[in-house]
Design brief:
Helix content: 25-40%
Radius of gyration: 16 Å
Strand order of the largest sheet: 1-2-4-3
Structural class: alpha+beta
CATH superfamily: Imidazole glycerol phosphate dehydratase, domain 1
Number of strands: 10
Distance between the termini: 22 Å
Length: 195
């Protein structure tokens, strides 16, 4: 059966079809109408070693906010569904992600408790047509719906493109480690008996 999920989300603002396979190879098919965000989701997929398909149509004539946030909701929901009861996962994952002059630290706890600590200050607000404030909106929507805790800190910065790219890559690597199955984990990875 596999650890997969298929999500269809439709609102007055967005229409999203998303498919996720946690045990993939990093294959991405992304079409959001937001080129820079497509690039970030492709990186997220490749470095997390998931397979992800996203086809989204949103009210981009207004701005990209609704589309980016709703994709975060759909992707978080997909992660939660694909993880099921979380039996056998590592639960925790972390990554120090360098990209040229940039260094990002990312850490994940698939705890069942949503939380985001996002400590990233960028020198500019826009990368092309992408509003960099949408990154935190995407991650907040994602963690709320995936029911996990994510810490992201920009430890050394510079170029905004490099910084945002390192955020997506670092979060992906940390998530990939956390969702990985570990044959030594019996049942759920908690002394409570369940997450």
């Amino acid at each position: 059966m596999g650890r997969t999920a298929k999500i269809a989300r439709k609102t007055k603002e967005t229409q999203i079809g998303l498919e996720l396979d946690l045990d993939g190879t990093g294959k991405a098919e992304i079409e959001t109408g937001i080129p820079f965000f497509d690039h970030m989701l492709e990186l997220f997929t490749r470095h997390g070693l998931y397979d992800l398909s996203v086809l989204a149509k949103g009210d981009l004539e207004i701005d990209a906010h609704h589309t980016v946030e709703d994709i975060g909701i759909a992707l978080g929901t997909a992660f939660s569904e694909a993880l099921g009861d979380k039996t056998g996962i590592n639960r925790y994952g972390d990554c120090l992600m360098p990209m040229d002059e940039v260094l990002v630290a990312a850490a994940v706890d698939i705890s069942g408790r949503p939380g985001l600590v996002y400590d990233v200050e960028l020198p500019i607000e826009m990368i092309g047509a992408y509003d960099t404030s949408l990154t935190v909106e995407f991650l907040q929507a994602f963690v709320n719906n995936a029911q996990l805790t994510l810490h992201v800190k920009l430890m050394a910065g510079g170029n905004a493109h490099h910084s945002v790219e390192a955020v997506f890559k670092g979060a992906a690597r940390a998530l990939g480690a956390a969702v990985a199955l570990n044959q030594r984990v019996v049942g759920g990875p908690s002394t409570k008996g369940r997450l």
